[in-house]
Every structure is written in C-alpha cells, then in structure tokens.
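Support reply, case 0932

Customer input (verbatim):
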Amino acid sequence: MHIVADEEIPCAREAFSPYGEVTLRPGRLLRREDLTRADALVVRSVTPVGAELLTGTPVRFVGTATIGTDHLDLPWLEGAGIEWTSAKGCNARSVVEWVLAALAEWCVSENVTWDRLTLGVVGCGTIGSKLARVAKRLGLRVLVNDPPLQARGALPPQHEANAVPLEVLLEESDFVSLHVPLDRNGQWPTWHLVGADELHLMRPSAVLANSSRGPVLDNEAAVQFAKAGLVTFVLDVFENEPTPNRDLVKRCFLATPHVAGYSLDGKVNGTRLIAEALGRFTGEPAPWTVKLPPADAAPVQLPDASPVRQVHAAFRAVYPIRGDDERLREGLPLEDDADWAAHFDGLRKNYPVRREAPNYALAAPSGNEQVDRWLLEVLGFGAGWHEAPVGPRDSGPTG
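Our regenerated output:
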C-alpha cells in the first residue's frame, strides 16, 4: 500500500510505514498528480479533499489528523466508496487549555474573579463539554448551547440544566467560547453562526473566543464591533486563512495562528488515532505508541494568591499564550498578502514544543495547600506535587 501524508503530521512516517510506503508532501500544495499511486491519504485541515483532488486516483482511504472534517467532502467520499476517518477528540485537552489560558489572562487584566463570571459554551461535544466541566469546578456559572445534541438526546446529562438558546447565552455570558463544527448547510448551519445580530446581544465589552473554525464568526462584523469597543475578541481561527484580516488581528485582546490544538501531546495523539484506523482498514493492525520526552522537570511555582492568579501563573509557565499572540502580531507590518500568509503558516510549521498540563508538577506555597491541591486536580496538572516556602502574598489585584 502507498500512503501519502501531510509532512507536518508528527511521526507520520514512523506511524504509517508498517502499512506500506509513505510519501510526505506539503499539505497546502497537495495535488491530484501526487496521488496517482496512492491507496491512502492522510491530511490536516489545510487540505480540501473531494472530487477535485481524488477523481481518477486509486485512493480508497482518507484520514484527517484533526478533529474537524469541514475540509472533507464527506458526501462525495461516501458516494465514491472511499473510507474516511478523523482524529476526533485528539487535542481536546490542548484546546481547553488554550481557552483557560486566555480566560485567565483576561480575568487578571480586568481584575475579575471566577465567581463573578458567566461562561457561555457554544457546542457541547468533546471539547465544549470538557471546558464546561472544568469551568464549573473552578466556580464559574456555565451556560451551554448545542441544539443538534439536544435534538438527538445526546447532550451530556451534567449540562442539561444549563442548556439555553443561543440568544440567552450571548445576552447573559461574560465570556463566550465557540466549539462547533463548520457546517454551511444542514438543519443547524454554523457558517456565520455569530454575526452582527448576535454580537449586538452581547454585554458591552464581553469576550468572544473562537477556536473552532474561522467562518463560524462573521469576521467583517467582528472588526466593526472590535473598533467600537463593544465586544472583546480572543481568536485562534479566522476566515481566509492563511491571510486573516489584519485589522481584526490587531484589535483582538489575544490572536493566535490556529494553534489552540497544537500541543505536542494532541498532535501525536492524532497521528496515533489515524494509524489505528489504517490498521482497521488493512485488517493488519500494527499498534504504534510513542514515548514523548519529559517536559521541563522544574515544578511550576504558584504564588500565594487568589485562585485566578494561581491559574494565570500556572498557564503562564506551561503555555504562555501571549507568546503566540506576539509572534503573530510581528507579521502585521507585512503589506503583501503572500508574505502575511507565509508568516501565518510559518508560525504553525515552526511552532515551539508545547506540552499539556499533566506533564508538569506544581510547587505550592505552604499554608494554602488545600486550594492548590484542588487546582491541581481540576486543571489536570499531574506530574507530582512539591512544597515550596511561603513568599509574600501577591501585591497586585486580587481577581
């Protein structure tokens, strides 16, 4: 079997080679002529897969090492008898950590405590439901919205009491996080799910975070609301990637280059799930595991401060989201769209190694251990626990 895979999929050759010859190609440059001998194709979200790419090729298996499938023409693939799969849930923790890091940055900047906040989660699948669970345990009021899951009776039971119409969620939330697939048709389309009418419903200076798909938010409307200071935006995905609207990027509280799910743990987990699917497809599974190198062994020092500031400190240490934001903004002076696109894609291609919370230990100031152990459990820090001497209480805002 001949397998063609996106060269940016980590460990692709190692994971897929038990099933045949592996050829690696740049995802955005994949063309039909690259697939004249291919039996299987493995992509990321940057490669549209449908009739234009696959007609006349021998491809009979398509895997995407991502949780989303909007770049796959699923009706066409199924009509052509081509088996497909995605890496559903592979980077859920990574995305949740992106949201929590952004939320903590905003809370500290606004001097806000958890118990004063309402978090609205739009889309209650693998990622949204995990975020809602963690937020509830942190003490936030949580509202959820997911009509498709509700219609199927599949909304997680723990969230049923908090399910509200989208309009209510937008009106009552201080921080809204989008976690829906991109669907332009169907009974519940999500293309421009949040546009000008929806943004008008939000509280003045409320936050809208999007780490799902760029077109779920009407980016032109977002620019106008950002200019007027009516809504604060935290965006990881944009319309027209890899050339997002520069004005929108500039006006975001935080803007990152489609990397919310880019933890090394999540990406390798995606590779593993596709390798397992290839094994089922061939009928000759060859289990593949990878032992990732340990993260920095130094425990993360927590301040003797409020829970919000402890969460902020923890994520500043293991995932400094401001760094992603600053690196993206470095490209704003670029006037040529090709240069801007190369900058955006280059940040993704050369993304620094980022590990998830379970790889890190926390160092707790003694005397505040009960709260800190609770935070360790809720946030998933799991590599150990260390005592640290008491330092001066944080002298900044107590939010």
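We compared this against your earlier run and they match. Two observations from our side: The chain has 15 helices and 14 strands. Residues 92-110 form the longest helix (19 residues). Please reopen the case if you see a mismatch on your end.
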